[in-house]
Amino acid sequence: QVQLVESGGGLVQAGGSLRLSCAASGRTSGDPAMGWFRQAPGKEREFVAAISWGGGTTVYADSVKGRFTISRDNAKNIVYLQMNRLEYEDTAVYYCAASFRALSGRRLSYDYWGQGTQVTVSS
User: Fold this and answer.
1) Which strands form 2-7's sheet, in the order they lie side by side?
2) 3-class DSSP state for residue 46?
C-alpha cells in the first residue's frame, strides 16, 4: 500500500502562483511514476502532469504546458506541482497519484490516489 497526502492548495488571484506537494509513504519502492490530476465541479477528473521515477521524463496537459512544472524529491518521497500564471479555469480539486505500471496520462494507469487539495483561483 502507498499513502499519498496532498498539501499546498488554497485561494489565489488569477495570475498568481501556488506550489502543491504530495508526500508519499508506505511501499514506495518499485520506482513509481507520479502524476497530478484535477477535477472541477461537474467535470470529470483530468490529467495535469506526470513524472518518471528518475525525474528525467515529464508529461503535461496542453492546458498547463508552460505554466505548471512537476518535480520530485525521491530522498524525501515528495512530488511537487509548481503552478504559475494561474487562471480561473484552473480551479479544481487536485489529486496526486502513483503508478507502478507506466508513466501515463490515463487515470486507469494509476494504482494509488490521495484525497486531494482544493485550488481556487479568483478572477
Assistant:
1) 2-7, 18-26, 78-83, 68-73
2) strand
**Alpha-carbon gap, residue 96 to 18, rounded angstroms:** 15
Record the cell numbers describing residue 7, joined without a space: 498539501
Strands 18-26 and 78-83, bridge-based pairing: antiparallel
Of the candidates 4, 17, 26, 2, the one whose C-alpha atom is nearest the C-alpha of residue 117 is 4
- pLDDT at residue 55 greater than cutoff 90: no
Q: Amino acid letter at 117? A: T
Adjacent-strand bridge partners of 10: 119
Distance, in Å, from the CA atom of 74 to the CA atom of 22, rounded to the nearest integer, reads: 12
Torsion of CA 117, 46, 104, 95, to 10 degrees: 10
Residue-wise pLDDT tens digits, 87-110: 999 999 999 999 999 899 999 999
